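In the design runs reported in the main text, the only information available to the sequence generator was the tokenized backbone. The following block is the verbatim input for one such run; it is reproduced so that readers can re-run the procedure and compare outputs position by position.
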């Protein structure tokens, strides 16, 4: 009998923002054909690794937002002469688009329902609560009577969060009932796209994970310096550092993170999940999760400490699929911390930061960023504490909190 020729598999990458270059490179290295669709507004300024992209298409956008119907028509047209084996989005804001395309083309991966658990703050909270996980009190910003009952039962302050945004973008804090209703009324017909939540003061943590065949195969717990919401709204230097696995905080976080991802039914991929330990009760609460690599250069911090590149391994997990074989690369057991700040200077001079533990520097206008690595977590903490003081004094600038994402 004649031998059947094996077809080269094709991955369609959806990326409204430019990121994840190593994901693209890995797909090509693994022998896949790479088709990339990105925003037309990036056409003349992008730095995608085009040597690793077989076909590059630009989708008409408004502030990086694509029209779903147009995107479906465009991808369906491409599918007339191409067979897509995977559709993968690189950012939070592309998850729904990718899910819609998978559902329509019947391609393996997260569909609409599961995607909501990783994009919709109301859906993920409801799901977590039903799974027995501890979450801050919340209510959908929809029914007046239920909102009033929530306000009477749960003391201020509260936070109003967009259901489908990312990080601290678009979050507003209310200290009184009057202030809350001002925020709600200003939202108008958009209020059902928000959730109201009790503000919990405390230390905020994140766990960054890889999932293969519904199992968490890699995870690291980290603690932010100041909570991201405080950094975004009050203006400050952003920091995070990896926690020793032997600490009580780390063990509790990893256990809760595994429970969260199991409840959300993530079969494969990468995840960045956030938790808070309440200052008043000492309890650990689930805040939100995502099906993506952590932003704010957290991926670079993870790689500095462990040698594992989250973008590369996410690609390998995706390409392996549900039934494929995936082996975690060797892991280095060290510690790392990151500092990122807006800078008054267009090109801040960081040469005075000359400690040998510095392994990465951010190159971006009006930004300063450093990653340090050490076998000692206390040395990482010491350096971050020193750098925050120096950066606040000599470089730091502030800007209004984001209402929508930027590049």
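Verbatim output:
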């Amino acid at each position: 009998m004649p031998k059947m020729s094996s077809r080269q598999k094709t991955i369609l990458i959806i990326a409204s923002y430019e990121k994840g270059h190593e994901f693209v490179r890995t797909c090509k290295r693994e022998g896949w054909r790479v088709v990339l669709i990105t925003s037309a507004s990036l056409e003349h300024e992008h730095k995608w690794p085009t040597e690793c992209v077989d076909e590059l298409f630009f989708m008409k956008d408004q502030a990086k937002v694509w029209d779903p119907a147009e995107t479906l028509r465009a991808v369906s047209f491409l599918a007339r002469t191409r067979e897509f084996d995977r559709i993968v989005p690189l950012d939070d804001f592309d998850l729904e688009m990718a899910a819609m395309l998978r559902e329509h083309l019947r391609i393996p991966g997260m569909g609409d329902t599961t995607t909501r658990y990783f994009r919709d703050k109301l859906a993920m909270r409801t799901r977590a609560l039903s799974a027995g996980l501890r979450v801050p009190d919340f209510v959908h910003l929809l029914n007046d009577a239920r909102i009033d009952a929530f306000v009477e039962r749960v003391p201020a302050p509260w936070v109003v969060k967009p259901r489908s945004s990312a990080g601290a973008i678009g979050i507003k804090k209310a200290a009184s009932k009057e202030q809350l209703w001002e925020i709600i009324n200003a939202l108008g017909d958009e209020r059902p796209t928000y959730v109201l939540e009790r503000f919990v003061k405390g230390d905020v943590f994140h766990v960054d994970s890889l999932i293969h065949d519904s199992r968490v195969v890699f995870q690291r717990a980290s603690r932010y310096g100041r909570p991201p919401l405080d950094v975004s709204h009050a203006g400050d230097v952003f920091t995070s550092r990896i926690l020793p696995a032997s600490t009580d905080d780390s063990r509790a976080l990893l256990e809760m993170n595994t429970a969260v991802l199991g409840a959300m039914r993530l079969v494969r991929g990468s995840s960045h999940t956030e938790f808070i330990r309440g200052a008043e009760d000492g309890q650990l609460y689930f805040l939100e999760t995502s099906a993506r690599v952590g932003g704010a250069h957290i991926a670079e911090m993870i790689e500095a400490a462990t040698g594992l590149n989250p973008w590369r391994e996410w690609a390998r997990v995706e390409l392996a699929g549900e039934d494929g074989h995936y082996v975690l690369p060797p892991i280095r057991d060290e510690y790392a911390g990151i500092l990122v700040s807006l800078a008054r200077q267009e090109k801040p001079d960081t040469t005075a930061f000359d400690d040998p533990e510095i392994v990465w520097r951010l190159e971006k206008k009006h930004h300063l960023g450093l990653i340090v690595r050490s076998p000692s977590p206390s040395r990482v903490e010491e350096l971050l504490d020193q750098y925050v003081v120096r950066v606040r004094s000599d470089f730091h600038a502030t800007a209004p909190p984001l209402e929508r994402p930027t590049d």
